[in-house]
């Protein structure tokens, strides 16, 4: 009986993934932002994990289950901006980062301070815009414009677009913006729009290679989803439908190797990574992972990096597993990538914040803990920033705190532009900060 209930429930959930699941995600962007950079809008793992635990508990106790407080979705509270307030640089207070290499607590070494480059720039809906480092500056994408700012807070160029619920992907010189839940997409090379067209089906997810080849996950009538590929001229050159397994994510390499993450059910949920050749109709190779939900994939040169609810996986383009980083007992809240392909993973480990830096070879370069769970984090040149409420903290990999900044309002996100320049995002404005040696203010 227990197995039958489980199967029926998960089938119902899977049946809704192609339609309702995506609109649930669209309606909750503040939850989606906990997943980084490459497919933050996917929350299926959290939903399925909760439903699975609920069924197991009901099968034993036959009592109704309520969502625990620490698993419930908290609505976003709109913050009231306080324009023109002056930010203050205050003495550093240690976030008690604990590096793995040593039992000592991270030290306040106070070698740098944050300086505002200019006054905050008003930007309607700033917290809901999409951001990505690009060239020597940073992109800011809303539903109506693509803006490129330099580290000096100068708007270098701006281009008009009309894309609802935009998703931003960057690879090399190319910028992909597509309409999640719609059909529009556009590609820019620097400030020039080189592709502007629509897909035949509704877009759910997408990715772009460094050669401007684009891969999309789309809806498909009578199927569980499909994958299509467009070349740098905006022409569709490949498509493939999947009938029995739900299509979750797609990635495309510079050599046009396509990887697809699928999810399905036997006696339990499992994920499959499928490798495709755009010149063939059949699968080249596939790899399965039981009791695992893979929700984001991306190529790092010719290697595929996959993020799941319980592990991070690296495979060769031929499907050979190279390494696995297991985090079964922790909840992955956010991840970001350094220019050297080093990744920062931010966890909630039983209500304790933990950050782990993983090299491209799978080695954990460092680990640290903080006394608060950050709202957001980023990494650049081996340095880490993270924010909580109004505080922005800059640390080394070993957890030593170099600088701390307290704003006059809550910080939503913070991104490295380069190792010395940072973009801070508030609800209705953005601010550019610069790190300088402490001696420079004396």
How does this model look, in words?
There is one protein chain. The chain is mainly beta and 442 residues long. It is 11% helix and 47% strand. The protein contains three helices and 33 strands. It has helices at 2-26, 29-32, 44-61; strands at 112-116, 121-122, 130-134, 137-141, 145-150, 155-160, 166-171, 174-179, 184-189, 192-198, 203-208, 214-218, 225-230, 236-242, 246-252, 257-265, 269-277, 283-290, 294-300, 303-308, 311-316, 321-326, 331-337, 343-349, 352-358, 364-370, 376-380, 383-388, 391-395, 401-406, 413-418, 421-425, 429-437. The strands form eight sheets. Strands 1, 2, 31, 32 and 33 form a five-stranded antiparallel beta sheet that branches. A hairpin with a 5-residue loop joins strand 29 (391-395) and strand 30. Helix 1 (2-26) packs antiparallel against helix 3. The protein is globular and about 60 Å long. The protein starts with a helix and ends in a 5-residue tail after the last strand. Mean pLDDT is 81; it is low at 1-48 and 54-106.
């Amino acid at each position: 009986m227990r197995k039958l209930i489980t199967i029926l429930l998960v089938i119902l959930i899977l049946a809704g993934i192609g339609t309702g699941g995506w609109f649930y995600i669209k309606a909750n962007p503040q939850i989606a932002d906990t997943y980084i950079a490459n497919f933050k809008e996917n929350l299926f793992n959290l939903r399925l994990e909760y439903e699975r635990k609920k069924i197991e508990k009901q099968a034993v106790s036959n009592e109704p289950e309520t969502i625990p407080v620490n698993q419930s979705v908290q609505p976003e509270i709109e913050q009231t901006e306080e324009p023109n307030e002056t930010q203050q640089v205050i003495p550093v207070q240690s976030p008690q980062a604990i590096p793995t290499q040593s039992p000592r607590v991270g030290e306040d070494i106070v070698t740098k301070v944050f300086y505002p480059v200019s006054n905050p720039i008003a930007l309607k809906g700033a917290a809901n815009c999409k951001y990505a480092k690009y060239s020597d500056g940073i992109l800011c994408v809303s539903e109506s414009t693509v803006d490129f700012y330099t580290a000096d807070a100068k708007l270098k160029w701006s281009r008009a677009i009309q894309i609802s619920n935009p998703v931003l992907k960057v690879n090399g010189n190319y910028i992909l913006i597509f309409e999640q839940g719609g059909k529009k997409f556009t590609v820019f090379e620097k400030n020039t729009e080189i592709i502007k067209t629509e897909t035949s089906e509704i877009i759910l997810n997408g990715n772009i290679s460094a050669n401007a080849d684009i891969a999309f996950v789309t809806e498909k009538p009578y199927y569980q989803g499909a994958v299509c590929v467009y070349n740098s001229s905006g022409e569709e050159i490949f498509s493939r439908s999947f009938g029995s397994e739900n299509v979750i994510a797609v990635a495309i390499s510079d050599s046009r190797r396509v990887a697809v993450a699928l999810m399905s059910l036997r006696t339990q949920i499992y994920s499959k990574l499928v490798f495709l050749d755009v010149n063939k109709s059949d699968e080249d190779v596939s790899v399965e992972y039981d009791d695992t939900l893979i929700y984001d994939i991306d190529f790092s040169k010719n290697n595929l990096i996959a993020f799941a609810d319980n592990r991070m996986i690296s495979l060769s383009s031929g499907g050979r597993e190279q390494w696995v980083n297991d985090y079964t007992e922790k909840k992955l809240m956010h991840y970001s990538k350094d220019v050297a392909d080093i990744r920062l993973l931010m966890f909630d480990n039983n209500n304790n914040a933990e950050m782990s830096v993983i090299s491209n070879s799978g080695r954990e370069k460092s680990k640290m803990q903080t006394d608060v769970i950050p709202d957001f984090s980023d990494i650049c040149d081996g340095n880490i920033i993270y924010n909580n409420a109004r505080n922005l903290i800059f640390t080394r990999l070993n957890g030593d705190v170099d600088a701390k900044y307290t704003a006059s309002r809550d910080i939503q996100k913070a991104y490295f532009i380069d190792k010395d320049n940072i973009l801070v995002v508030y609800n209705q404005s953005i601010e550019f900060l610069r790190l300088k040696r402490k001696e420079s203010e004396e």
